[in-house]
């Protein structure tokens, strides 16, 4: 059935006009508060980053409780599963964001402003992609086969990089990014940052500052990640509202998570292994759902099973990564002695 939810049960649609409008209003208010609080540039300390991370981690689970009380357990379960996937995929985004901010020599006090602009723009762009995905789902269950194919290709690329040792993320060549080159062709760019200003008068003419150039680079990078992450959430729920909500909550906490994990991301040595498994799992779920609509005897993967699998994979990846990074110095020391 077009628009049916991939899984053993069908969840009621929760995207009422009132809920959409209320959610967008709350989202705009949270972004406005973030912009207001960061209007004075400052380097973010770990204590501040942890407090904001705790706040943005509590919000989605409070929202899940609201969904459970209002619409039942299945939509809440689908939301939590989708959110955990989006959050794990967003951690992978942070590797690239760290390299981008380093490539542009962004001052520490401006880093959170760059991320905020990037998050606001990413929410708009992902909204467009989610609407396109919803239109595909409504057009027919073949969309799930397409989404599954995208996830399989992404998982295969990750695994190929891990096997061949080419999965290491290198500093991006900013000068070759089409979006950045186009921006510099349209308007001149100043040689230095001017606080949080995006454009200034330089030598009597209006010029862009490097701040807006790095924001555009962050946005362009997020579009690439969205091509994988949005089909992954459609593997859990076909409700566009829930897909948007999982993306919104994952992106909102990205700024604080950046500063919490900036120094510790290198410790997650098995992150891509886990992401490849999760994407492949959701790809299988999507293909089985498509096959079930054609041949009803084909089984489907329940949402509860997907949630358990995602949690277990993330838990194993985290523990294994921490164990590997903790024992690596000891192994190196023993190798040096021998």
In short:
This protein is an all-alpha fold. The protein has 11 helices and 2 strands; from the N terminus they run ααααααββααααα. It has one domain.
Explain the layout of strands and helices.
Layout: H1 17-37, H2 46-71, H3 73-103, H4 111-139, H5 142-164, H6 178-186, E1 199-202, E2 205-208, H7 210-234, H8 240-252, H9 254-261, H10 271-294, H11 303-337
Antiparallel strand pairs: 1-2
Structure description:
The protein is mostly helical and 338 residues long. It has one domain (17-329). Helices cover 72% and strands 2% of the residues. The chain contains eleven helices and two strands, in the order ααααααββααααα. A two-stranded antiparallel sheet has the order 1-2. It is globular. The relative contact order is 0.18. The model has no long low-confidence stretch (mean pLDDT 82).
Radius of gyration: 21 Å
Derived structural class: mainly alpha
Fraction in helix: over 70%
The proportion of residues in beta strands is: under 5%
Determine the mean pLDDT: 82
Strand order of the largest sheet: 1-2
Short descriptors:
globular; 11 helices; 338 residues; two-stranded antiparallel ribbon
């Amino acid at each position: 059935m077009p628009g049916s939810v991939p899984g053993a049960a069908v969840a009621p649609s929760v995207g009422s006009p009132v809920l959409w409008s209320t959610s967008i209003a709350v989202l705009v208010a949270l972004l406005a508060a973030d912009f207001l609080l960061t209007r004075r540039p400052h380097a973010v300390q770990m204590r501040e980053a942890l407090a904001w991370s705790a706040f943005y981690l509590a919000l989605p689970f409070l929202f899940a409780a609201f969904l459970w009380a209002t619409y039942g357990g299945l939509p809440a379960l689908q939301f939590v599963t989708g959110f955990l996937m989006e959050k794990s995929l967003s951690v992978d985004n942070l590797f690239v964001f760290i390299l981008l901010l380093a490539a542009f020599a962004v001052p520490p006090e401006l880093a959170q402003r760059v991320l905020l602009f990037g998050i606001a723009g990413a929410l708009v762009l992902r909204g467009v992609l989610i609407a396109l995905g919803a239109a595909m789902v409504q057009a027919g269950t073949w969309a799930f086969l397409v989404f599954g194919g995208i996830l399989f290709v992404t998982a295969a690329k990750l695994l190929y990089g891990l096997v061949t040792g080419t999965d290491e993320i290198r500093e991006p060549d900013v000068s070759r990014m089409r979006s950045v080159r186009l921006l510099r062709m349209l308007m001149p760019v100043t040689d230095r940052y001017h606080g949080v200003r995006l454009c200034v008068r330089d030598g009597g003419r209006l010029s862009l500052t490097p701040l807006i150039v790095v924001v555009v680079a962050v946005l362009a990078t997020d579009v690439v990640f969205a091509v994988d992450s949005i089909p992954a959430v459609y593997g859990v729920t076909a409700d566009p509202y829930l897909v948007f909500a999982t993306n919104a909550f994952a992106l909102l906490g990205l700024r604080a998570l950046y500063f919490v994990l900036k120094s510790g991301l290198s410790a997650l040595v098995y992150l891509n292994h886990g992401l490849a498994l999760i994407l492949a799992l959701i790809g299988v779920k999507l293909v089985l759902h498509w096959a079930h609509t054609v041949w009803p005897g084909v089984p489907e993967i329940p949402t509860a099973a997907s949630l358990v699998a995602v949690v277990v994979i993330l838990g194993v990846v985290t523990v294994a990564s921490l164990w590997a990074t903790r024992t690596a110095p000891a192994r190196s020391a023993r190798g040096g002695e021998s």
